[in-house]
Amino acid sequence: MIEKNTTIKNVEMFIELIKFNLSSSYFVHRGNFYCQKSGTAMGNPLSPALADLVMETLLDHVLEGIDIPIPFLKKYVDDLITALPIDMIEHVRNALNEFNSHIQFTCEMENNNQLPYLDMLLIRTAQQKIVTDWYKKPVASGRILNYFSFHPLTQKLNTATGFIGRVFKLSTCRSENEKKELVRDYLLNNNYSSSLINRLINRYINKNTNTHESNSSTHPEPKMYRSLHHVEKLTPALAKVINRNFPNVQLGFKCVKTNRLLFSKLKDATPQLEKRNVIYRIPCADCDCAYIGLTTQQLKNRLSGHRSLINRYADLKSSDPNRATEREEEFKKTALMVHVIENEHRFDLPGTKILEQDNRLNALQVLEMCHIFCDTKTVNYRTDTSNLSVVYSGLLHSITNGER
Fold it and tell me: Where would I find the Reverse transcriptase domain in this sequence (predicted)?
C-alpha cells in the first residue's frame, strides 16, 4: 500500500516515523520548552494534508449515520457547503461535532437568498436557479498587493491578473462591463494605473477566448526552478541574463522586506553557540588575523574540536618538544592550526562571531569563499576561494576596493 510513495517497506516503522514527526514540535519561550499536545503546528508542511485526511475520515463516518438524503456536499479543507431541510440543520451539525471534541463546526445559513462560500457568493433567484458573484467579507479592507510595494513587478502583475480571473470567473450574475468596473475600482485603490489595468483586463479576456492549442510534437526541455532575492534594478537585470542563457530555468523572486521585520519575535532566539549551518570568524589573540570556517553542526561542537586540537598540540609540545615538531604535519589539519604552530599564536575562541547562516550547504560554501576573498586579514589559504566563480570574484573585488 505504501510502496508507491516511499522506500520504507516496514509499515510499523513508517507509522512510528509519522508519530515521531507529529509529536516532536516544540519551541522555547523565556527559557521554558513548550510542546504541542493536540493537532499540528501552523506552518507544518504536513498540516494541510492531514487536515484534508481528517475531514475525509470525519465525513465518511458522519454521513453513514445520517438517514436523510443530502443533494450535494462540497468541501475545501475544513469549509463545507451543503443543502439540508431547515429542521435537520441542528441534527447534522451535532453529528459533525460529536465526531471529535477538538473539531467543532459553526453554521452559516442562507440569508436573503444569499450564502457566501470562500470567495464566492451563491445567490438563489426567483426561478430557483443559482447564480454566483465574487465575494468579499464586510470587514475586508480592499487591499491587495499595492503597486508601489517593494515587490518584483511580475508578482504585482500576477496578483492583479489573479484578481481579475477570480472576478470574471466567479461573477456569473454580472455583465462584462460590470466586471471591468469592479476590477478597475479595486485596482485603482491599490495604485495600479488605468492604462495598466486596461491592458491586463484585455490580455485576460483575449487569453481565455483564444481556444487554439499548440499540438507541437517536440518535447520541451525539463524546467529547473530557482529563486532570487528581489533587489530593485539588480534582480531584473540578472533575470534577463539568466533567461537568455538558460531558457530552461524558471526564476522566482523573494522579497527581502517582509512583514516579519515589523514584529517582535516571541520565541526565544537560538543561542549563538547552538546555531547550525553557519559561517564563523575566529580572531587571533596575538595579531590582527582571523580564521573563517564553515560548520553544519552546532557551533559549540566545532569550536570544541578546534580547542581540542590546539590543546593536544600544546600538551605534546610542553611534554616532548621534539615529538611535537615531528608530528606538526599531523596537526596542521586547518589553516587555523598552521597559524598556531608556525607563529605560536593563540586564537580567541570565545570571541568567535557568526558571519552568515543558511540551511543550504551550497549557499554556505559560496558565502564562505566570499568572506575569505573579502577579508584581507584571514589566515585561510587563498586556494580556499579557487572554486569561486569569476562572476562573484569580479563583483567582490569591486566591493573590496570601494567601487560601485
Answer: 1-139
The answer to whether the beta carbons of residues 120 and 132 sit under 8 Å apart is yes
pTM: predicted TM-score of the whole model, two decimal places: 0.67
* pLDDT tens sequence across 362-387: 889 989 999 998 888 899 987 777 77
Distance in angstroms (rounded) separating the CA atoms of residues 375 and 369: 10
For residue range 310-352, list pLDDT tens digits in order.
Answer: 999 999 999 998 988 889 888 998 999 999 999 999 999 999 9
Report the C-alpha gap between 227 and 244 in whole angstroms.
Answer: 16
CB neighbours (10 Å) of residue 117?
A: 15
- What are the backbone angles phi and psi of residue 84, rounded to the nearest 5°? -140, 150
Instruction: Give the model's pLDDT for residue 398.
Output: 67
**78 CB-near residues (< 8 Å, 6+ apart):** 51, 55
The label of the residue with cell 596575538 reads 286
Rounded (5°) CA angle 125-130-132:
105
153 membership: H or E segment, kind and range: helix 153-170
CB 355 within 8 A of CB 380: no
| CA gap 282, 351 in Å, rounded | 7
**How many other C-beta atoms can be found within 10 angstroms of the C-beta atom of residue 159?**
19
